[in-house]
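[Discussion] Sanity-checking designs against the backbone

I'm trying to build intuition for which residues belong where. Below is a structure token string of 113 positions. I'd appreciate it if someone posts a full sequence so I can compare it with mine line by line.
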């Protein structure tokens, strides 16, 4: 019984969601910057915006960077500080020589220009 009370006391003192507390943006809506300001921030960083959404109280930008890579960036709604920029990679880049050209030919099989 004493062990059970100790465990329950520990769980009450340290809620399960404490580890994620830094991921969320807790700002009153009255203090938020407008969505246009987020779009300008993305443009200033050289990003092409596909979508701006709100997730866990933060702005989240989905788009592409200047090199054409998919990005996902979390932005603080009041300060417009980029909290968590991520380059989204899906799969591996194609192996050299495996990219198909016109009519499905690989580069080594294509006639010279």
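Best answer:
Here's mine. Compare freely.
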């Amino acid at each position: 019984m004493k062990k059970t009370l100790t465990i329950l006391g520990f769980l009450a003192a340290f809620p399960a969601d404490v580890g994620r507390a830094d991921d969320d943006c807790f700002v009153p809506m009255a203090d938020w910057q407008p969505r246009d300001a987020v779009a300008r921030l993305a443009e200033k960083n050289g990003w092409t915006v596909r979508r701006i959404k709100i997730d866990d109280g933060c702005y989240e930008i989905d788009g592409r960077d200047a090199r054409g890579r998919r990005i996902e960036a979390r932005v603080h709604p009041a300060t417009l500080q980029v909290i968590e920029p991520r380059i989204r990679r899906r799969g591996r880049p194609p192996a050299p020589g495996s990219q198909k050209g016109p009519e499905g030919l690989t580069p080594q099989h294509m006639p010279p220009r």
